[in-house]
Write a structure and sequence with these properties.
Layout (H helix, E strand, L loop, with lengths): L31 H15 L7 H8 L3 H7 L3 H17 L11 H16 L3 H13 L1 H21 L6 H22 L8 H26 L6 H12 L9
Helix pairs in contact: 1-2, 1-4, 1-6, 4-5, 4-7, 5-9, 6-7, 6-8, 7-8, 8-9
Length: 245
């Protein structure tokens, strides 16, 4: 598993590659849904998100427009399916060797595993990062997907992601991960030294911000019991908190 750049893994040591999420198994051909997602990602590697049309996805995937409509409502929905497949691939990994590590180390390992799963789609990720810079509505929509994914990444690292505080953690982690992605898309080193250093640095900043948040929460005046009670009740009812937009 991955380790922080300052930890036990040497930065020059190549990282083991894992199978790409959503790849067809040896048991048979990929489903129409899988082919649609794969075609969309291939097109995204070649052109901007906004210019990808359903007809060219159908042509690339070898399916009909009716097939796409039966599976997805929009191109954003196709991307959401890809993000969910990446989530599942990360969550299905073995975390036993870092179970006793610190929360920061566990989260580092989980996010590096996510990058491993994304590695076959690096060109598509690079294209998407360019699109969100010039398209605020797309950035907002993708943020909702990213926050949902990062809630699962927190859970994979055995870090509480429930309630309002968990939502703040997930939002902060989503922003942090985008910064790491901007380094990762141009990191050609097999050992991903620059990426690991960037992730370690961003997690350090996130850890400090989380500490500041905890300090602010402790500053709620004791003479305001209703405010404290509402904060406690909100954390006790995580199911009532929307997961993401």
């Amino acid at each position: 598993m991955a380790r922080r750049a300052s930890g036990t893994r040497r930065q020059s040591e190549p990282r083991p590659r894992r199978p790409a999420a959503g790849a067809a198994s040896g048991n048979g051909a990929a489903s129409a849904r899988d082919r649609i997602v794969a075609a969309f990602l291939a097109l995204l590697a070649e052109k901007s998100f906004e210019t990808i049309g359903f007809a060219e996805i159908a042509d690339r995937a070898g399916v009909t427009l009716a097939d796409i409509r039966g599976e997805f409502n929009s191109t954003l929905g196709i991307y959401a399916a890809h993000a969910k497949a990446i989530d599942r691939a990360v969550l299905g990994g073995d975390v036993g060797d870092v179970a006793e590590e610190s929360p920061r180390e566990r989260l580092f390992d989980v996010l590096m595993r996510r990058l491993d799963m994304l590695s076959p789609h690096k060109a598509a990720v690079r294209s998407l990062l360019r699109s969100v810079r010039r398209n605020p509505p797309l950035a907002l929509a993708l943020n909702g997907l990213a926050v949902r994914s990062q809630q699962w990444m927190l859970a994979a690292a055995n870090i509480d992601s429930s309630g309002p505080r968990g939502m703040l953690r997930a939002q902060g982690l989503a922003v942090l991960f985008v910064q790491v992605l901007r380094v990762w898309v141009d990191d050609e080193d097999p050992g991903l030294a620059r990426t690991m250093a960037a992730l370690d640095r961003e997690l350090g900043r996130g850890q400090r911000l989380a500490g500041m948040l905890d300090d602010l929460c402790r500053l709620i005046p004791p003479r305001c019991p209703s405010l404290r009670r509402r904060a406690r009740e909100a954390e006790d009812r995580p199911d009532e908190t929307p997961a993401a937009a």
